[in-house]
Amino acid sequence: MLELGAEGLTVIDFRRPGHDGSWTEAALMADVLFVDADELLRAARPLSPAQTEALTNRLVVALARQQDLPKLFERRCPFHGILMSEQPMCRLSATLSIARAGYLTLPATVMDSFRSKQRQRLERLTQTEIMVLRCVLAGGTNRQISGVIDRNEAYVKMLVRALLNKLGLRNRTAAAIFALQQGVAPHPDLKPGRETLDRPQLARRLLDNHV
């Protein structure tokens, strides 16, 4: 274990030689798991309910090379912070502090590549999908979206699900954040009201509080 006195945290170092490569009970009792990216990718397989619950209550920081990052994101590995292998170990303390505050920092070159890929995803959308994305950003319900695109609600539900899958996003709020990042405007026919969630305001608030 590593002790970070400044943060008062107990850290299990999964990079040390000879560890058994498993999420042991001892490891899950630590405040932080410091894991090599290769180990974290192996752990991306389905975890037990107890392991999943334990991981949500502690920080997981990955030591990663730049080429590891796409796989970490694509496989939705359970991590909250990243220390690049090119960075000195003294950066671990700062990385933990940032992760505890709910932020994730990435190298500028990685962010540029990430934004480029996001833009490519947007450009692959059909006109109907873009219209639905604008409606989602505006906070439209399935019924409201069905009125905009003149299709039934069942079709809209299927279309929204397909849109989220195509963009690699988990829910409508994530889609709204994505739309804001790409400069997409909310659909003008939908305004926040009794039925319509003010998703643009929610997305902006979330975007302002996350890196």
Automatic annotation (TrEMBL):
<dbReference type="InterPro" id="IPR036388">
    <property type="entry name" value="WH-like_DNA-bd_sf"/>
</dbReference>
<protein>
    <recommendedName>
        <fullName>HTH luxR-type domain-containing protein</fullName>
    </recommendedName>
</protein>
<dbReference type="GO" id="GO:0003677">
    <property type="term" value="F:DNA binding"/>
</dbReference>
<dbReference type="InterPro" id="IPR000792">
    <property type="entry name" value="Tscrpt_reg_LuxR_C"/>
</dbReference>
<dbReference type="InterPro" id="IPR039420">
    <property type="entry name" value="WalR-like"/>
</dbReference>
<dbReference type="Pfam" id="PF00196">
    <property type="entry name" value="GerE"/>
</dbReference>
<dbReference type="GO" id="GO:0006355">
    <property type="term" value="P:regulation of DNA-templated transcription"/>
</dbReference>
<feature type="domain" description="HTH luxR-type">
    <location>
        <begin position="118"/>
        <end position="183"/>
    </location>
</feature>
<keyword id="KW-0238">DNA-binding</keyword>
<dbReference type="InterPro" id="IPR016032">
    <property type="entry name" value="Sig_transdc_resp-reg_C-effctor"/>
</dbReference>
